[in-house]
Design a protein that fits this description.
It is a single chain. The chain is mostly helical. The chain is built from five helices and no strands. 72% of the residues lie in helices and 0% in strands. The mean pLDDT is 87.
Length: 106
Amino acid sequence: TNCVWTSAFKSFDYIPRNAYLAAIRCYKKTKKAFISAQTREEIIAAVKNYTIDFNQLNEKYDEFIETIERDDIYHAMKILHETCLCQDEISLEEVWHIMDDMREMW
């Protein structure tokens, strides 16, 4: 929900509005992908797409993702991981390793 997103992304108050709106769409898209995922591979693909989306946003909006925003992005993924019940398929640590491997310049 937006309440979860807003609390997870406190630092996003200071980014361009369009970047914030795109981040919300990314969060919602990832949530839907997690909920509908039937396999570990689909979960991994959703994590990769989430990270790629933020790579693209960071590039489009002049590298706005710094330490605080990065922490918020990871925290939002933690919320998604916990609330979408995909822990049995993949651990949070595995998710973070995938994100670390995929992220660019943030």
